[in-house]
């Protein structure tokens, strides 16, 4: 049986790597989290010391707090939009120069040289990105959305919000996206936004002596969580220039706790982003941004003033949604398997990681350069709205190897930046521009390339690849339906993107608004809503949202809002068992040190027993971090007799403020003399005297609601009938994990209370 | 001191009517709620009986439940869009015919006859609306948004979701809006949507023998709340043809509890609304809908392909927001006072109510017909894009009394339906069409007319009047700024609407999306965000959101999510006092009857005492409704000895299902013999054995978080030190009301912990 171990170190035993997903405990398959994953505490800690501190806060301090709350959001908005703009500017220029140089060589018929230059440039950029990621900050690899989502759920993965990670994420993302890998920048932008917010809320850096008194109010989990939520909204807003979509994305996908006030603050942050970006674009229209401005800052304007569609267009859209849902869940399924395989390679060491990344880069370059040769050249249309063939970077008609007056339709998609390819696919009045075989080749390439590119050791996003894959899928369906529908192929591409996004990421309102904002056409709304609803519903039948799958692989214990049906069959006492570590109100120092050194628990119940009280009484809950601070300050008593509340003079609120992860003091660092070990410490003023408690007969489902809605880290279980001890156990996040519960009660695996979901057939095992 | 009275009947003692807003208890100023306001219970009730019932549910039943959940949302969407369309069709046709007839008379120079016909038609329509509202369903008066908002917060005002209310709301709204009163239809549509959803979730009607087994699953507060949330989203979506805005409105303004799954369901509902409305509009474009189609179903298409604005346009927009915020809070302030004055009149009886409504109607008709005479006629522009002057109903250039070739700009705004007036104000390229004096007259008229029209006894909305007032205010500012800004006056009108909406209703994201959806121009986004943020911030400095003010006047105990600072200074034991009513696990029938008859409490702690147990133990909480069912079924024991669980054979889950308000059994209706009174009843199987408890030393702020986040109706307070009784008291919604707390602890009124807000000066007293 499991004891009430909370926040155990979740490492990644290689032995368990190949186990199926029905592992009984939460195990990280990917990532190298050698530090423990910590839970966050959103409860109001009410101990005497904090109460006293709160009472002494003046009105000025409250105003400072309010002022800082908004100022930080403003600053987050400014910084994130700056980063977003820099990112776009850099990618457009680096990738742009690469394409211009290669195209010029091809114009001069130097195809081999062009290929070598193209591959070498991509290889160099990928190598750089994977080098800095692997050696400086492995936490910056991947999209970052799963980690931020877990953080907002109350799980602090180590190092995800460090300055190092931020820098690697920004530089690595620019470099990786420029290297023509089939990856996106939206995920990394969200992580960047969250990271900026978290760093700002950390109250400066103690290491670099940058601290400011006003920032001290944000040194707690609640305020930092709110700021990170705003930051992730800003990141999304900057990635797609979609301020409302960014807020909704943070609300629907990222945040686990949400309040009206937060909605407003997030909205403010993204408004700042929108206005700053607008100013930059105004500036770039003057032509001072190099190659930026022709394709930059994604904005697929598909406005056609009078799009008309009628009820008879609903069935094809419905079909598009169904297939999109199936494709999306298949995408998730394969991605999951590929990440597991990559994990085996990546575990072998940094060199292997980099090797993998470089192989993918060479493979990608080969495909991008080689595939267009499969497509036949097409004659330029007489009424083309732009120069045909296009010489240079963006544009619908790429010349590639074709003779003058002809263009290569596959090259227009494949030998281009992702943003430009999306723009080409979304364009209206281009129904005859692409041949169906080119679109098919492109779709298959995108689908698999994006799956194989995600898991490499570099900042990689999923949004843009999925949009691109979906757009080609939608065009293909549009071509098959042909003239039986009023909708043009560009519109089908938009709907195809929506369906694949819905089928893979399983968002609704936020995706809808993001797509509306970047296509800038509100009349599409009902069709996009329809396609998203259908594809999400179909996808949910097969598996979970892609970020949840990745989160599971990373071993992050995400707490769902919804209780599984079998949780109604269990009581809390069914999952809390094992020995319980308790402290007394006045405890011997050596006992405290012993318990802290021998367990990894982060919270301990404090009880008062006779003769202090008449009968055993639960006084409250004390946190490991606070105990360590007490020991460090050596606030000891010579005897087991309390001496009043002079504790308030010995400590300041700053002593107990939450540190960044890994920066907190450790019990191992504290040296105590023999004499001190024999002394006593009065825990009363530092014990949270009103923890939330549940009675042992409460069902797990009902306890989960309290745990999740209030955002707890520890929940005390009290006995139904008063017994010798006033507390039965402690529940933590891990006790609510389905893996844990099903491990303790394996019989539930077969019960009819499991989630209704179609499983893939047993050939799943071949992976 | 107050005892733990829960859900006291909140009637409206006339004596307290003139008291200031600092009344110590929650008192209804308006509305005639003679029935008690009931709280709703979103907690999972875990008694043995329900647990047994849950265990016996088959997989089929779970699937039925899932299927019904989505089917109901689908049906709500269909019905609400039907109602919305009918509403629009009727208003456009009734008001349209009225304007056409009057205009024709004026063309024939019969001005007096035209005035009489116009006034009589309006009078008749208003009279009809107020008659049915006053005599059939007074609950249908007003916007309905505050009541629905309170319901979703857990307060069930009597009669708001009855079939009667629904019918009166729909018919009354059509009639009142057609009567040229300065009121809107959005609020009534939201109420209608919520009402449709609530009726569908009620499981048919027992009275008319319409019950269906599948609907039984929805006979609980949680599922009904979710359905009502979707219904209110659908209502908003239908009112403005704004599906995403509808979802966000329900999320931001209406819902107090929200989950990801609900977002998805609400989105589905509004998608249905959008698609059905689209089909109807397609149909109406064929010209079979009478006068509908030229101006119906609000959609102010202000697309101008290349709206350009730059950073230098930000300051005027900022200014617009600041003044809008001040105007909005002033609007709320005056409206609040007018409603209080109207309440005095309305209290005198139905005849007075109708008289008030009719006077407002005559006054309005006089203004609408009289004011345009103040404006001078203007020559038609040579390059007018439409016929000038317009003969008939809609259009920019109303002829009114002007000679041929001229138009009356004030009449174009004032002698028109509200929708058309908004459309005219929002139009681009009309900078020279309106004279500033006309706009000023129109603004002042709108501002006050909408304030004086809201409180009458008819279904009245606030959205459209505020949009219209704001649009004229925006145009006025645009004219004053003139050519110093690049923005055209139509755009200023849109921004003005946004600023007044933000200043009065204090929403952000949802208003932003609603405005975007009905103006259909995404490029406006950053400016609208800016103006909303500024006006909401400015407005919040002065007073609360308009719906919260109305809710307060109606005496609905709305529970805020955010704890007031002084709540951190109080513990729960500071607010629970007074005698506590307890039951024993096996209780004498006469005791139960006595307590139920003499108190109005809705929940009672159940304890087991020696000799049943060793020491007193809190067994759980039993609800009044369940006790009444027990008494009605006469499931009694001859002696105080439990006889096992044969209770499960005597009852079905349907016996304990939640009834519609007022339909539940009452203790007064139950007759018991002397003999039965001497028997015993075993409460154990029907007692919620795991209620949420808090320790008496917990701060009120922390307890509020639990109460609010989990959605409780009763919260048990347990002692810190075990004493004779295992429970100290019960907390209910009313114990968390600031009015109650400040009444018990008046010293807090002067504390520095009160909300930071600028108060209006003492001349407030003159009202």
Automatic annotation (TrEMBL), chains A, B:
Swiss-Prot/TrEMBL keywords: CBS domain, Chloride, Chloride channel, Ion channel, Ion transport, Membrane, Repeat, Transmembrane, Transmembrane helix, Transport, Voltage-gated channel
GO MF term set: voltage-gated chloride channel activity
Species per Swiss-Prot/TrEMBL record: Actinidia rufa
All copies of domain CBS, residue ranges: 686-747
Highest taxon of the lineage: Eukaryota
Membrane topology label: Multi-pass membrane protein
Bilayer-spanning residue ranges: 67-91, 111-136, 227-251, 257-277, 289-311, 317-334, 354-375, 439-469, 490-516, 522-542
A Pfam family per the record: CBS
Key word Ion transport present: yes
Name the UniProt record assigns to this protein: Chloride channel protein
């Amino acid at each position: 049986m499991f004891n009430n171990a909370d926040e155990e170190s979740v490492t990644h035993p290689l032995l368990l790597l190949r186990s199926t997903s029905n592992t009984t405990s939460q195990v990280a398959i990917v990532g190298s989290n050698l530090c423990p994953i910590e839970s966050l505490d959103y409860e109001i800690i009410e101990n005497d010391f904090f109460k006293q501190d709160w009472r002494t806060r003046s009105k000025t301090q409250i105003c400072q707090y309010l002022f800082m709350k908004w100022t930080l959001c403003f600053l987050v908005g400014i910084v994130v939009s700056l980063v977003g703009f820099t990112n776009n500017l850099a990618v457009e220029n680096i990738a742009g120069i690469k394409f211009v140089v290669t195209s010029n060589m091809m114009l001069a018929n130097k195809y081999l040289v062009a290929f070598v230059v193209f591959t070498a440039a991509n290889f160099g950029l990928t190598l750089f990105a994977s080098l800095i990621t692997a050696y400086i900050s492995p936490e910056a690899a991947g999209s970052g959305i799963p980690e931020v989502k877990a953080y907002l759920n109350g799980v602090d993965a180590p190092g995800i919000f460090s300055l190092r990670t931020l820098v690697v994420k920004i530089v690595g993302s620019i470099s990786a996206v420029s290297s023509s890998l089939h990856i996106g920048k939206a995920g990394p932008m969200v992580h960047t936004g969250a990271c900026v917010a978290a760093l700002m809320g950390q109250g400066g850096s103690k290491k670099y002596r940058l601290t400011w008194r006003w920032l001290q109010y944000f040194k707690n989990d609640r305020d930092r969580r709110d700021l990170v939520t705003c930051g992730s909204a800003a990141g999304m807003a900057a990635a797609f220039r979609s301020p409302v979509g960014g807020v909704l994305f943070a609300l629907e996908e990222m945040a686990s706790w949400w309040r009206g006030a937060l909605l407003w603050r997030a909205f403010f942050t993204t408004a700042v982003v929108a206005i700053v970006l607008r100013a930059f674009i105004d500036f770039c229209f003057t032509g001072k941004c190099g190659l930026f401005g022709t394709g930059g800052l994604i904005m697929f304007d598909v406005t056609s003033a009078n799009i008309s569609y009628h009820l008879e267009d609903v069935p094809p859209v419905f079909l598009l949604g169904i297939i999109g849902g199936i494709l999306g869940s298949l995408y998730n399924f394969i991605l999951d398997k590929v990440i597991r395989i990559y994990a085996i390679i990546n575990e072998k060491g940094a060199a292997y990681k980099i090797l993998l990344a470089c192989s993918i880069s060479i493979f990608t370059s080969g495909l991008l350069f080689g595939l267009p040769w499969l497509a036949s050249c097409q004659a330029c249309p007489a009424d083309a709205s732009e120069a045909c063939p296009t010489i240079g970077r963006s544009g619908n008609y790429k010349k590639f190897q074709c003779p003058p007056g002809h263009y290569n339709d596959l090259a227009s998609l494949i030998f281009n930046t992702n943003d430009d390819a999306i723009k080409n696919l979304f364009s209206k009045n281009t129904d005859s521009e692409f041949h169906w075989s080119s679109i098919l080749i492109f779709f298959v390439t995108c689908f698999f390339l994006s799956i194989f590119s995600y898991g490499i050791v570099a900042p990689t996003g999923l949004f843009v690849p999925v949009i691109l894959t979906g757009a080609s899928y939608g065009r293909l369906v549009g071509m098959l339906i042909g003239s039986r529908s009023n909708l043009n192929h560009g519109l089908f591409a938009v709907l195809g993107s929506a369906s694949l996004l819905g089928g893979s990421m399983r968002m609704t309102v936020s995706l809808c608004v993001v797509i509306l904002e970047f296509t800038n056409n509100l009349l599409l709304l009902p069709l996009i809503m329809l396609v998203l609803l259908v594809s999400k519903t179909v996808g949910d039948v097969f598996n979970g949202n892609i970020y949840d799958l990745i989160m599971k692989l990373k071993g992050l214990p995400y707490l769902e809002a919804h209780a599984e049906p079998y949780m109604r069959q269990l009581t809390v006492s069914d999952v809390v068992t094992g020995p319980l570590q308790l402290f007394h109100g006045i405890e011997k120092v050596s006992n405290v040190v012993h318990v802290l050194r021998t367990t990894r628990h982060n919270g301990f119940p404090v009880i008062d027993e006779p003769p202090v009280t008449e009968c055993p009484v639960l006084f409250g809950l004390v946190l490991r971090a606070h105990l360590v601070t007490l020991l460090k300050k050596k606030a000891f008593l010579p005897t087991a007799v309390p001496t009043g509340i002079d504790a308030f003079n010995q400590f300041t609120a700053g002593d107990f403020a939450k540190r960044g992860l890994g920066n907190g003091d450790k019990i191992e660092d504290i040296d105590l003399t023999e004499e001190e070990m024999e002394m006593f410490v009065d825990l009363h003023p530092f014990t949270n005297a009103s923890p939330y408690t549940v009675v042992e007969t409460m069902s797990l489902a009902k306890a989960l609601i309290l745990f999740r809605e209030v955002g707890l880290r520890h929940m005390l279980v009290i006995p139904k009938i008063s017994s010798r001890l006033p507390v039965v156990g402690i529940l933590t996040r891990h006790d609510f994990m389905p893996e844990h519960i099903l491990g303790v009660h394996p019989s539930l695996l077969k019960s009819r209370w499991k989630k209704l979901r179609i499983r893939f057939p047993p050939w799943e095992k071949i992976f």
